[in-house]
Amino acid sequence: EAGRVYNFNPGPATLPLEVLKEAQAEFLNFNNSGMSILEISHRAPQYAAVHEKAKQDIKELMGLGDDYEVLFCQGGASQQFAMIPLNFATKEHPGSYVLSGSFAEKAYKEAEHLGVGEIVASSKETGYHHVPQQSELKIDRNAAYVHVCYNNTIYGTEYHYIPETNGVPLFADMSSDMLSRPIDFHKFDFIYAGVQKNLGPAGVVLVVAKKSLLENSPESLPTMFRYSTFYKKDSLYNTPPAFCIYMVGKVAAWIKSQGGLEEMARRNERKAKVVYDAIDSSNGFYRGHADKDSRSFMNVTFRLPSEELEKKFIAEALTHQLSGVKGHRSVGGMRASIYNAMPYEGAVALADFMEKFRKENA
Ligand code: PMP
């Protein structure tokens, strides 16, 4: 599409062009309501259909049945960091956290702030180059849950196994790899994701959890902090972010139409291979941050020989229509986010540019 760049931003991030065009085409008169989705009542039947279909498609993609429910919350994934310990952890049954990066730490800090958090493994000491492996997890059988951050957006590491927790409920922040590949989601009790990476615009958080966890929340909590409020009222207790949910629904339908999570995984692995190959074949010019067995399919992080060259790389990338490759300030270097909607051609364009830049600057 003329004027559009390959957008490697970590989130908000690139969305499927087909989805953007569809939204554009129906923007002024949504579903024959005579108004746009931004203007319609969240109680209108035209909206109810969108809400329901989005939930159904997400559950279908994840292969989950009636024992799971999809909620639409607000406050970002960051608010979930607090809501989770508020709803589930106590001093007697604390929340157990695996520290694998910045967001895992932030999640832990909210539980710690409430006096109900503990750490069961951490790769912080070694610079978050890998996600803690099963053998590193010291599971506390008394814990309310084990919390993991499944893809570490900033460090570019991702789990390639499902932690075994000896019966303790498994909770996961999947903000940056939600619906990017098939996973045995049944092994998770509670999954949440800010949608602004793989699934839509910023403004809604997807929660997919076992119903049994959502039925009863502590009465002591304010209404909007209880998961039971969202569950019992179908995420319509208050006005939901209707536009965001509509977009998430469109992205979920797009994933289905493309072949589901198997096809997303096939594409994402193919893209990641192209970019990681450019790192691995660079004779050390590019140095990946993640250990190979923890490499993320979503966020590829790497450094160049000097900060000066990194600045030059970012500036020159832009002249090749490659935008958003600057890494997070805490890690430095580059980060290319190659979510579901990044086309293969985008990954190839980046790898070609990396090769050219290396030859000119090595
Ligand atoms: N978790 C992960 C893995 C993230 O990447 C982010 C955002 N970059 C967050 C949590 C925080 O999400 P939000 O901005 O929606 O609060």
Describe this structure in words.
The modification N6-(pyridoxal phosphate)lysine is found at residue 197. L-glutamate binds at residue 43. Pyridoxal 5'-phosphate binds at residues 77-78, 103, 153, 173, 196, 238-239. With 362 residues, this protein is an alpha/beta fold. It has ten helices and 14 strands. The strands form four sheets. The protein has a seven-stranded mixed sheet with strand order 2-10-9-8-5-3-4, with helices on both faces. A three-stranded antiparallel sheet has the order 11-12-14, covered by helices on one side. α4 (102-113) links the parallel β3 and β4 (117-122). The relative contact order is 0.16. The structure holds 4'-deoxy-4'-aminopyridoxal-5'-phosphate. 4'-deoxy-4'-aminopyridoxal-5'-phosphate (PMP) is lined by residues 11, 76-78, 103, 149, 153, 173, 175-176, 194.
